[in-house]
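TL;DR need structure tokens for one chain.
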Amino acid sequence: MGSYIEENLARDEKIIIKAQVTWLSQFWYLLFGGLFILSALGSKSGVSFFIGLLLIGIAAIHVLTTELALTNRRIIAKSGLIRRNTIELKVNRVESLGVDQGILGRILNFGSIVVKGVGGSHAPIPYISRPMEFRQHK
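>> reply
TL;DR here they are.
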């Protein structure tokens, strides 16, 4: 199974740069998931173990199902496993690409890419690894 972006490229369209969600942005899901699993192993609680797996699963879904790419024609973003959310904006319709990073994002080098298009469209794509590198390619 290929990526959504690669399967939906137009003829003569080429990917310039791809970005993905970083595992570091899922720190809290992974931390609490691990803590629930560890507490379940100590107390033999099935509910805690299930909650831990659920939290780690949510983090994995965020990381593995979000794609972002800049091609020679458009910016394409896709997220979601069961419910798919896509954003496609032609490069000539993009007014600006912004980066929104909190303190943890600055330290761990992740943030949201905010695509602003002509006509007021505003599309944030959260938790992207190395967002400044992606923005520089626009």
